[in-house]
Amino acid sequence: MSSFFLIFLLCIAMATAAPLRPGFYMETCPEAESVVQQVMKKALIRDPRSIASVMRFQFHDCFVNGCDASLLLDDTATMLGEKDALSNINSLRSFEVIDEAKEALERVCPAVVSCADIIIIAARDAVALTGGPFWEVRLGRLDSLSAKQEDSNQIMPSPRSNASSLIDLFQNYNLSVKDLVALSGSHSIGQARCFSVMFRLYNQSGTGRPDPAIEPKYREKLDRLCPSNVDQNVTGDLDATPRIFDNQYFKDLVAGRGFLNSDQTLFTFTKTRKFVELFSKDQSEFFKAFVTGMLKMGDLQRDQPGEIRRNCRAVNGRHMNILWES
Q1: Residue 319 falls in the annotated catalytic set
Q2: Which residues are known binding-site members for heme b?
Q3: Which residues contact 256 (CB under 8 A, 6 or more apart)?
Q4: pLDDT digit string (tens) for 223-281?
Q5: What are the start-end ranges of the H helices in 109-187?
Q6: Tens digits of per-residue pLDDT, 151-208?
Q7: Which residue in 43, 72, 95, 118 has its CB near the most CB atoms, within 10 A?
Q8: How many CA atoms lie within 13 A of 203 on its CB side?
């Protein structure tokens, strides 16, 4: 990563955009958070995996130019968006849940609640509805006027990432080692594709052998789920309780049963291991640290023109953009 790009990332972390605050829509759209929550409840019943996917939108949106819903923009003739970036293509799903929330909000209070704020509310609700903590979210974001696939490709980590590189990435956003480990606990719910684990099973670090950090019986389970000739879009659980937000994820890492390399490395690396061990023993400490990390990540902003999109997949008409830029 170039020094110029690192400076750019720090500018995002330290941007002096409009202050975010709880209850931002209390006067303009008092039902905003309850509307999103009802949509999330329906999504949980319809497809439990979907809300885990929606929770991850906050990570993939906020790390790339701040929390501005740039992730949600579809490609246009003149813009390659972030949905097909390396870390997102064939991985992120359930964009229709955000569409449903936006449509419901437009019926209640049109052109008031930003798509960027919907992501933040929905991520919180995904955690709370599956047994995790509830917290007051800080709101008041604007939606970006563009997206850039290249930025996502440069920033977002891969499933092969090790703890050292993840620490460096998070530090660029003023997120601590503890924040990194706690936020990795988002993998307490949901699934991932065989594509993300094949190298661990059959060619770790180019050795032609499996990752020795994988517990043998768990490796046998993964071998059955993801044989070498498998359709790599087959999915496996990220921990032993994939529909419950709890600290089982950390217990699994201690036992050598992390699905992704970027997960298991948190236990094998000295600087992160102590937090994995702490959270595996104390769920309340994990919940507390997770909320702190989500709030800090949600505060990432970049000073740039914005708008309240009427459709989260596309910017509004040019006349609306001019109003926000002036």
Answers
A1: no
A2: 187
A3: 213, 214, 215, 218, 264, 267
A4: 999 999 999 999 999 999 999 999 999 999 999 999 999 999 999 999 999 999 999 99
A5: 115-129, 149-155, 163-171, 177-184
A6: 999 999 888 899 999 999 999 999 999 999 999 999 999 999 999 999 999 999 899 9
A7: 118
A8: 7
